[in-house]
Design a protein that fits this description.
This protein has 273 residues and is mainly beta. The chain is 3% helix and 49% strand.
């Protein structure tokens, strides 16, 4: 008869993966870039004291549970989850309005007409562009206005040819022109932070890798299973090289389950790769 698998102590190396599932068990998001995983359980306790002020009993009335980790890379699916939205993927029939910043060096060939790389997105019947020349340090120098006919300091835009046309003499060879506009992109993704959408509760699984305390060649994988976890709606992401995305969850008990658990930990005898 085979021995039962029974492990107690092992060395945690690092958290490796996290997956969040919707209430219908479909995958909402997945990442293999987690770090700094932690779980916190707090108890609400009241004490009973006698007439002299001595504690004679402590009653625990309830518990709360939170879990958190950081995502090491900038992940748009994770950003969408934090906002209670989904990442949008552009197609030929569902294009995404996309900003464009074009810096153009003025030559003898384009002193009065610059052809843009993209067609400017129409806003109703209008096409809106921001045009300025730049100084050597990149600051705005000469700011142009958009009009229906070229004039001093006024440019026009022709949608059919994607052309920005300037008045004769407004630009000189060597000038740098910055043209900012939006266009409809067929190849782009978009994530929105909406004021009326929030994260929803679901199932969270976190995999932790380690090894046997007596035999470091024996790998151990533990699975943290949170049946009802919900991302907090407050977060901050720093936009820099070494930044991470912090994720914090409020966990509720599995109220309709038999053991009313916040989470459990499962350690199988082997890992399925």
């Amino acid at each position: 008869m085979a021995e039962n698998f029974d492990i107690n102590s092992f060395v945690i190396e690092r958290p490796t993966k996290a997956i969040f599932m919707n209430s219908d068990d479909t995958t909402a998001w997945y990442t293999n870039q987690i770090q700094d995983f932690s779980v916190k359980v707090d108890g609400e306790e009241e004490t009973k004291k006698d007439a002299a002020g001595n504690t004679i009993a402590t009653v625990t009335k309830g518990k709360t549970c939170t879990t958190s980790f950081n995502v090491a890379v900038y992940d748009l699916n994770i950003i969408a989850a934090l906002n209670g939205t989904q990442k949008e993927i552009a197609t030929s029939s569902a294009k995404i309005a996309t900003p464009a910043f074009e810096e153009v060096k003025v030559t003898a060939d384009n002193k009065t007409a610059i052809v843009l790389k993209n067609a400017v997105k129409a806003v109703g019947t209008a096409y809106k562009l921001s045009v300025t020349t730049l100084t050597n340090d990149g600051s705005p120098k000469k700011i142009f206005k958009q009009g229906s006919a070229e004039a001093v300091g006024v440019f026009t835009y022709t949608s059919g040819t994607k052309t920005v046309t300037f008045n004769e003499g407004d630009l000189a060879e060597g000038d740098t022109v910055l043209i900012v506009y939006e266009y409809d992109a067929e190849k782009a993704v978009r994530v929105a932070a909406s004021g009326d959408k929030f994260p929803t509760a679901g199932k969270l699984y976190v995999q932790v890798a380690g090894f046997d305390i007596c035999d470091q060649s024996t790998r151990v994988y533990a699975y943290y299973r949170f049946p009802t976890a919900k991302l907090t709606s407050s977060y901050q992401t720093d936009i820099k090289l070494d930044a991470t995305i912090p994720m914090e969850f409020n966990c509720a008990v599995d109220y309709c389950g038999d053991d009313k658990k916040f989470y459990d930990i499962v350690v199988p005898s082997s890992e399925i790769a």
